[in-house]
Design goal:
Distance between the termini: 27 Å
CATH topology: Rossmann fold
Number of strands: 8
CATH architecture: 3-Layer(aba) Sandwich
Number of helices: 12
Shape: globular
Largest sheet: 8 strands, mixed
Structural class: alpha/beta
CATH class: Alpha Beta
CATH superfamily: Alpha/Beta hydrolase fold, catalytic domain
């Protein structure tokens, strides 16, 4: 089911597979939308209720309110508001690439049963790598963001280190990438939203969030890519060590976007983690999967 919620920052589109299974909320990164999770959702939906919002991080179709504060912090607050409005409880919150789920877990843990951090920004790694640095630099230059997005949209450059070549080992289908970039290419208000978000980043906020994870007393899984070029391998180790119930899984033959490079391995890790940490009294019977 495709739907939309009108929240404090503006309208948020989302996909909801429905059903009575444990709730898994999946968050994407910058200049992506919920289609990042298409392979993962296709597998999980038989046993889990998958809810996938498209956050205002550059690939959203409708602009946020011009007067609304749009920063990484406000987007973390928006995720909490989204969970509240849908009355989602015992949520497994999963995020790839971006680092906002850490802030949600620290500041708004009330609806979370468990946390999954998948190859994401953390600690002092912001902006991560050349693609992130290009976007942040472009946001500070009049017209710069438009120029960089048009550069990233060139199909001949998509596999280079300035773009998705730094984030995946396998090409993301052009139609998926086109969908991610179209709002930025066609709507100045979406570029305005992304610029506000990038300029609203506060130095040290992810360091503070990581330290706050010491108090997150619920099951947590850190999934890291062994061949990641953007997210340092030791950050996965450090995040898992900071979390009181943290555990680490490393995925071979993948870069940052594990849902694109190794969705089957990621699903296997998610299923095992949720199965091992389900609370029967609140979540019902463990999900089953035909062999």
């Amino acid at each position: 089911m495709s739907a939309e919620l009108d929240l404090s920052l503006g309208p948020i589109a989302y996909e909801d597979t429905g059903g009575d299974g444990p709730v898994v909320v999946l968050l994407h990164g910058l200049t992506q939308d919920g289609t990042l999770w298409r392979h993962v959702v296709a597998d999980l939906r038989a046993d889990f209720r998958c809810v996938v919002p498209t956050l205002p991080e550059g690939s959203h179709r409708k602009p946020m309110r011009a007067e609304a504060e749009l920063t990484p912090q406000s987007v973390a607050d928006l995720v909490a508001e989204f969970l509240d409005r849908l009355d989602l409880t015992d949520v497994t919150l999963v995020e790839n690439d971006s680092g906002r789920a850490q802030t949600v877990a620290v500041q708004h843990p009330e609806r979370l049963a468990r946390l999954v951090l998948v190859a994401c920004e953390a600690l002092d790694n912001y902006p991560p790598g050349l693609p992130g640095k290009l976007l942040v630099l472009a946001a500070r230059i009049p017209g710069g963001l438009n120029a960089v997005v048009r550069l990233l949209a060139l199909k001949s450059l998509r596999r280079l280190p300035i773009g998705l070549g730094a984030m995946t080992k396998r090409p993301v289908p052009d139609e998926v990438v086109d969908g991610w970039l179209e709002p930025l290419l066609t709507d100045p208000a979406i570029r305005r939203d992304l610029r506000r978000y990038l300029l609203g980043t506060r130095k040290g906020e992810l360091v503070e969030a990581a330290e706050g994870l010491r108090a997150f007393d619920r099951p947590a899984l850190v999934v890291w890519a062994e061949d990641d070029l953007l997210m340092p391998r030791d950050h996965g180790l450090r995040l898992a060590a900071l979390l009181p119930q943290g555990r680490l899984v490393e995925i071979a033959d993948s870069r940052t976007l594990i849902p694109e490079d190794q969705p089957t391995a990621l699903v296997k890790a998610l299923r095992k983690f949720i199965r091992d940490t389900l609370r029967p009294a609140s979540s019902g019977p463990e999900p089953t999967r035909p062999s």
